[in-house]
Fold this protein.
Amino acid sequence: MELKQLEYFLTVSKLKSFTAAAEQLYVSQPGVTTAIKRLEEELGIQLFIRNKKNAVLTAEGRIFFNHIEIIMSDVSKAITKVTELKNLSSGTIRIGLSPITGVSVLIFLLAKFRTLYPSLNLILIEDGSSSLQKQLAENKLDVAFINFSPDSADEMLNRIALGQQEFKIALPAYHTLKDKPCLPLRSLANENLITFQENCLTRKLLLDQFKAEAIAPTIRFSSNSLQTIKRLILCGAGISILPSEALENDLNCRAVPLDPPLFIPFCLAYKKNKHFSHAAETFCSFIKNSLADA
């Protein structure tokens, strides 16, 4: 049974004529007649009562018509939907965004992509990098922007390296160390620290730096919101280590470089062997090409 046969059957049923159906379908009448005859042979029933003037459905033909009309309508909708997705006129991309990568040029690129493809629905899921990696593995996300440690790659994920971010010490404008040109990590040993939450890979990477210096930092607050962390700094609740980009043009927080400087790479990650929609594939190519041209 072929879709062409079903299309011919529906057309003849509605027009009640093999000749009219052939004209509407732009095919020969013998072609329509042969297709319907083969369909009847395959089903083992007679679909039409034929005479010189018209073709009328039999009782079995009416039952078959009621079901096939629904099926062909669904097929038409499916073809239309697939075509829309192929042409990027519809579709959804679920994008994970860690609190660190969210302050970078990536926000600008997300907005630009949305302008280029206004019919696509972009759903942003903000969470820590560790949590986002888990959601990628569980197929809850299409892609995610995450920080990562080069020596701890997740074997389930592919990564497109996008660059690295410098992290600096974030101090309130009145802090005694605010005017230092740079500071070693050990100078923060007696400071109250405000860090990201445990589901944020950046927290682990920062704590590893302290551990390497044999320092046990005093963590007073944890948050994945950059604005919350900066407000806590302003209130004198402690200091933090944040992406330098998050501190640019901020009159309330001073950014002091670490000595040696601290850089953490970030990437666009997605699950290995995952079937990508055309929309998600286009998004990955757009991000990769945009940053390569930057």
